[in-house]
Amino acid sequence: MALEEIVVTEAIAKTYFEKFQSAINLDVAIVGAGPSGLTAAWKLAQKGFNVAIFERKLSIGGGMWGGGVTWNIIVVQEEGKHVLDEAGVPLKEFKKGYYTADAICATTTLASKATLSGAKIFNCMSVEDVVLREIEGEKRVTGIVINSSPVEIAGLHVDPVVLNCKYLVEATGHDLEVVNTLIRKNDVRLNTPSGKIEGEMSMWADIAEPHTVENTKEVFPGVFVAGMAANACFGSYRMGPIFGGMLLSGEKVAEEIADRLS
Ligand code: 48H
């Protein structure tokens, strides 16, 4: 059978825009396809919610691909082990309570779980702003403002487009980009002790791991923070290449949002 290039073009354009169209009114928009974002997407899609991740880079996985200093092995402690067990990622006990996993296997398996459960991933797509509305006297984020990453990287003056979401999950890691933009542009207070971003602190893994989960919560009406972004927002420590907190944070944010949406 002859291969017609034009059919390939049609197939990609039609199928991509069907996928895009189905993301115009989302239950949950997740910003960032690192471990916390991928886990949240998997768990929400598994429950049947319309969920999509927007990832600036071409590759998914955020900081998990590289393990520690590019030695591509991650460590997970007892508490977070069940998430990788459920995904089917093989783990080895290194010492009591310390498990290792291959970073490539963990990343690809979480991405596979998310997409096969029905979550959509839009890579090369940056979230550059949010939609803010006043609803019954309360300001709330009701959507995301997205642009193609190549447009952003080239510094082209091309306007973004908007997608609606009932909830936004900021899983952008250390930079906490979305909440930073929210408070820079608008006179609003966050649900943090100071009402502002508390900021990430230095390394203290033992405290940072449980804090990542505690700090996974709604920081502004319609906006949850997860993963490293949660610690940056609420002011806690970093933890190096230990990923249990990221997985548990993704699991928690999915549960909390699922409860709200049900
Ligand atoms: C679209 C964006 C935008 C944007 C950023 O950093 P991540 O891996 O995030 P987490 O929180 O799931 O995992 C953190 C972990 O990788 C880590 O860094 C740890 C454990 N550090 C500890 C330590 O001590 O250093 O992924 C975030 C993703 C990235 O892929 C970004 O490209 C993406 O978010 N992103 N995507 N629009 N505005 N900002």
Strand segment tally: 11
CATH superfamily: FAD/NAD(P)-binding domain
The profile of the biggest β sheet is:
8 strands, mixed
Secondary-structure class: alpha/beta
C-alpha geometry = globular
Rounded Rg: 18 Å
Low-confidence stretches: none
Mean pLDDT: 97
Polypeptide structure, described:
- It is a single chain.
- Strand 1, helix 2 and strand 2 (51-55) form a beta-alpha-beta unit.
- The strands form 2 sheets. Strands 1, 2, 6, 7, 8, 9, 10 and 11 form an 8-stranded mixed β-sheet that branches. A 3-stranded antiparallel β-sheet has the order 3-5-4.
- The longest helix is centred in the last third of the chain and has 18 residues, at 244-261.
- Helix content is 39%, strand content 26%.
- The protein has 262 residues and is of the alpha/beta class.
- It has 9 helices and 11 strands.
- The termini are far apart.
- The protein has a single domain (25-72, 103-261), classed as FAD/NAD(P)-binding domain, CATH 3.50.50.60.
- The chain binds ligand 48H.
- Ligand 48H binds at residues 31-37, 54-57, 62-64, 126-127, 171-173, 175, 177, 227-229, 238-240, 243, 246.
Quick recap of the structure?
This protein has 262 residues and is an alpha/beta fold. Helices cover 39% and strands 26% of the residues.
